[in-house]
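Researcher: Excuse me, tokens okay?
***
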Amino acid sequence: SPIFDGVSEPVHLFTMSNIIKDSFQEKFVSMEERPSAIEVTFANKDKGYQDDTFTVYMDDYENIATNKVTPVSVDMPGITSFEQAYREAKYRLRLNKYLTRIISFSASVDAIPCQVGDVILFQHDVTRWGVGGRVIEATENSVQLDKVVTLQANTPYQITVRTPTGKIETREIEISPTTVETDILLLKEPWQEIPLPDAVYSFGEL
């Protein structure tokens, strides 16, 4: 099926509670290590489907002070037009420019609903991206967590939960006038679908 790379609603929530232990990795790639040009090889239909090669440069190549070219060679089988090969090369260069941080992790059967290109939400303790776990129980206007969290005085918080039908709901928490430690959160607005026990959640400052 086609893969659409664009803005879309998240389809899944992964936290410390539903990824495999010690599988999380985070990687940063410096701009100096990134290719600034792609050398494309494709079967050009305008030249009798003979292999044709050309070079595509990143968008702001002219503005780079050193103009240091770090090319990478890419073979594009199945592409037969110059226009499509050029677009594909530009797309890959832009991915290379804007994707500055990469994470990887493993999950069990819970990951089955995810397809290539889907947007997901992610929480992890190592990077201090919120607090994650499993719901103990919930009512229309509250939720009990599997751990105690700290609510700082007059600070807005929110919780995101994956409901039994796979829907992701986010709700703001009632602001506390004093700093408290609690495992029960009161919601500003009721759930559309009340989370069941063991539902995955991510909690943090708004």
The longest helix spans residues 82-98. The longest strand covers residues 142-151. Helices lie at 82-98.
